[in-house]
């Protein structure tokens, strides 16, 4: 990339500041994480050394002085002894023992507040707790020094935020000719650093999710909902009331339910991710597909092959007639006109042809569609091209009245023109050759029947497929009653809408579903229900209990009781903001540690169904090998004006139909309030609407995620 400016790799040193890691280096993971970040920069960096010191000002300073005194280069080149960059990790918080910034800043000859700003700005996009880090940056002798937070994730994010700028800073600090470095202006520098300048950044709204999100890398698409101003990480509401003594990445972010409602968070502490970021978390943390052997029958519908499949046999396995008629031996001149004796019969029944005499020129054999040709036969004449000339009566056991059966004796062939060899004959393997690839790894078996037909035709009875996850569906809430409970509702009761809906949706996508019932809003009950569920299923889908109420227990139960990791707990979208995705470590039946997935969807029925399609489905697809995962996406034209949400991209439930001339037009299903289950009625698509102050006009084009088949206008 910038090989013109950095012919030799720059040298970096890592200082881990942690009293715990100083006692037991095995507890440290920041070193590996940071080395990876350097490694990703295409050989620009060489990590020269890493050291661990306790949270102790003197020890921190001693090591930094040692590294920064190794060379005082000012000769214009990158002196090979110079450590170009020192990154420290740890000790940047507010705890009494945190003193890295103080230790470092006392040593700096030059301050670099711009780098500090860059790191903080990037982390604040992830969490307001970035404010709890107090980084410093600057130069001592020829070495740039920056202090990173202690959590490996935070340290990585901070370093990634500035790493592209660091070669330039380090070259200058090490004494490179500044005028030469700056020749060509900022644009050239940006190009060399592989960064974009301000203003040109303009991320579009995150409509580009759905397909292909699987390989999104982290870091580049933050703020994928650019242009939607007001959501975000609490820059409107402060966090002053929140008493936390740790950084969120070190501990559960959820409420401790035992502290009661007055101690809960008043704003969600989970960073708000864009939809594409959320999808990339799902892609990253969904367990890899497992391979199982499956019988070839209708249970295979929807499965994805984990192997290439070769034809075990030829189709057809023998030379077969395509028509009902007469097998013949075509003479050299191709003239088949005349009257011929019928010497034998071949039916499409097993063994029929086995003892057939060899057919000779001048003889013909009656044959049915699909039956084997007698040996020696070269073609088949259709029965329509013949007339019966004479018959015989033969006594057979079939003849019930004892009169015997009339058999054909002679038949006249009327073929006016030349008959060619091979006419009306399917040669061995002419449909499928033995050993031929009939289906590839990754192919999905459809319900249309083509794939099962192929497997059946060539005698493949079992195939390796990706195991489809078993899904459990659980409703939560003290107010929820079974949808079919007889009698009127009492005040406050709500019929369970989500469970029957999600069970149906997941089954329709081809997954085995277990009905997990309704869990009450009690921490113990919920924990026990989830533990039970995780024993039976691979993916648990819950609804309700992820809002900000004191009875919203899903997140604390997953984090605190089950030891799970919440990968996201808030998404910038409408509906579905509190959608939560977590993985929980569990021992499987063989005692192996595996990871199981929990999707905690919002309780409002429209939100639950939208987020099922948007988030759960891609995860289920990925686990079962379906690629690309998630709903298919097509461009559609709006059939009328659509008003937009000001701050969040919206997944508008709509009916998309195709007109006679092939245009796809979308109309709304009506009111889009997240509790309005009717907004899903008839909907076959989710329109990916951007956010904005003005309505989108009739005729505008948007992307639609197709949940069901297209309607026809015709
Ligand atoms: P919650 O997040 O638990 O506060 O739920 C949000 C809203 O969705 C509340 O009005 C709940 O009553 C409603 N809700 C939760 N679960 C269901 C369900 N299974 N069926 C219908 N409504 C539900
Ligand atoms: Mg609830």
State the gist of this model.
The chain is α/β, with parallel strands linked by helices and 714 residues long.
Describe the structure.
The protein has five domains: 8-71 and 80-190, 3-Layer(aba) Sandwich (Molybdenum Cofactor Biosythetic Enzyme, Chain A), CATH 3.40.980; 273-285 and 467-622, 3-Layer(aba) Sandwich (Molybdenum Cofactor Biosythetic Enzyme, Chain A), CATH 3.40.980; 291-313 and 432-464, Alpha-Beta Complex (Molybdopterin biosynthesis moea protein, domain 2); 318-424, Molybdopterin biosynthesis moea protein, domain 3 (Molybdopterin biosynthesis moeA protein, domain 3); 631-710, Beta-clip (Beta Barrel). The protein is of the alpha/beta class and 714 residues long. 40% of the residues are buried. The model is unreliable at 1-6, 73-78, 199-226 and 229-250 (pLDDT under 50). The two termini are 55 Å apart. The longest helix has 19 residues, at 605-623. Helix content is 21%, strand content 24%. It contains 15 helices and 32 strands. Bound molecules: adenosine monophosphate (AMP) and magnesium ion. The site of adenosine monophosphate (AMP) has 20 residues, from helix 12. Residues 202-216 have a biased composition (Basic residues). Its cofactor is Mg(2+). Residues 246-257 have a biased composition (Polar residues). It catalyses: adenylyl-molybdopterin + molybdate = Mo-molybdopterin + AMP + H(+); molybdopterin + ATP + H(+) = adenylyl-molybdopterin + diphosphate.
């Amino acid at each position: 990339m910038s090989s013109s400016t950095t012919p030799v790799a720059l040298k970096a040193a890592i200082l881990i500041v942690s009293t715990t890691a100083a006692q037991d280096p095995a507890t440290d993971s920041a070193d590996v994480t940071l080395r990876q970040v350097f490694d990703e920069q295409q050989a620009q960096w060489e990590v020269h050394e890493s050291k661990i010191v306790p949270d102790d000002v003197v020890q921190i300073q001693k090591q930094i002085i040692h590294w920064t005194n190794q060379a005082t280069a000012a000769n214009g080149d990158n002196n090979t002894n110079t450590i170009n960059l020192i990154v420290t990790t740890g000790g940047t918080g507010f705890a009494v023992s945190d003193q890295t910034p103080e230790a470092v800043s006392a040593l700096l000859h030059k301050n670099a507040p711009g780098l500090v700003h860059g790191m903080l700005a990037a982390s604040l996009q992830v969490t307001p707790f970035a404010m709890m880090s107090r980084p410093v940056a600057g130069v001592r002798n020829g070495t740039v020094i920056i202090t990173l937070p202690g959590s490996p994730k935070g340290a990585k994010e901070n370093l990634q935020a500035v790493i592209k700028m660091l070669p330039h800073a380090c070259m200058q600090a090490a004494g490179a000719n500044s005028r030469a470095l700056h020749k060509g202006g900022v644009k050239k520098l940006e190009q060399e650093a592989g960064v974009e300048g301000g203003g040109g950044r303009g991320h579009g709204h995150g409509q580009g999710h759905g397909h292909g999100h699987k390989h999104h890398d982290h870091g580049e698409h933050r703020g994928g909902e650019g242009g939607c101003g007001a959501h975000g990480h609490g820059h409107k509401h402060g966090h002053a009331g929140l008493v936390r003594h740790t950084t969120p990445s070190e501990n559960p972010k959820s409420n401790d339910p035992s502290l009661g409602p007055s101690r809960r968070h008043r704003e969600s502490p989970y960073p708000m991710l864009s939809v594409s970021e959320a999808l990339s978390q799902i892609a990253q943390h969904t367990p890899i597909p497992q391979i199982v052997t499956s019988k070839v029958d209708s249970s295979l519908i929807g499965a994805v092959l984990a192997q290439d499949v070769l034809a075990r046999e030829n189709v057809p396995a023998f030379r077969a007639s395509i028509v009902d008629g007469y097998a013949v031996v075509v003479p050299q001149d191709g003239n088949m006109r005349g009257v011929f004796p019928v010497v034998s019969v071949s039916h499409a029944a097993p063994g029929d042809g086995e003892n057939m005499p060899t057919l000779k020129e001048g003889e013909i054999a009656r044959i049915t569609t699909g039956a084997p040709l007698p040996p020696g036969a070269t073609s088949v004449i259709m029965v329509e091209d013949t007339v019966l000339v004479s018959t015989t009566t033969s006594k057979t056991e079939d003849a019930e009245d004892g009169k015997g059966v009339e058999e054909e004796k002679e038949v006249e062939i009327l073929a006016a023109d030349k008959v060619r060899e091979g006419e009306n004959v399917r040669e061995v393997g002419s449909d499928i050759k033995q050993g031929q690839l009939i289906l590839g790894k990754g192919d999905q078996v459809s319900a249309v029947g083509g794939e099962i037909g192929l497997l059946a035709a060539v005698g493949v009875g079992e195939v390796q497929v990706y195991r489809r996850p078993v899904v459990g569906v659980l409703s939560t809430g003290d107010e929820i009653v079974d949808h079919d409970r007889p009698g009127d509702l009492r005040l406050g009761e709500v019929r369970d809408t989500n469970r029957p809906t999600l069970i149906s949706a997941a089954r329709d996508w081809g997954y085995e579903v277990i009905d997990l019932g309704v869990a009450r809003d009690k921490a113990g009950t919920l924990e026990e229900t989830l533990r039970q569920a995780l024993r039976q299923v691979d993916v648990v889908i819950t609804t309700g209990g992820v809002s900000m109420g004191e009875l919203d227990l899903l997140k604390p139960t997953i984090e605190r009781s089950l030891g799970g990791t919440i990968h996201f707990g808030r998404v910038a979208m409408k509906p579905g903001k509190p959608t939560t995705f977590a993985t929980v470590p569990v021992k499987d039946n063989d005692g192996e540690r595996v990871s199981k997935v929990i999707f905690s969807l919002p309780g409002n029925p429209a939100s639950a169904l939208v987020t099922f399609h948007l988030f759960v489905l891609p995860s289920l697809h990925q686990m079962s090998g379906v690629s690309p995962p998630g709903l298919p996406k097509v461009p559609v034209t709006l059939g009328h004006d659509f008003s937009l949400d000001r701050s969040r991209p919206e997944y508008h439930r709509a009916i998309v139909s195709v007109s006679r001339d092939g245009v796809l037009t979308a109309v709304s299903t009506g009111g889009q309030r997240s509790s309005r289950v009717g907004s899903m009625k008839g909907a076959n698509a989710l329109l990916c609407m951007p956010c904005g102050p003005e309505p989108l006009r009739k005729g505008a084009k948007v992307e639609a995620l197709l949940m069901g088949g297209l309607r026809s206008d015709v």
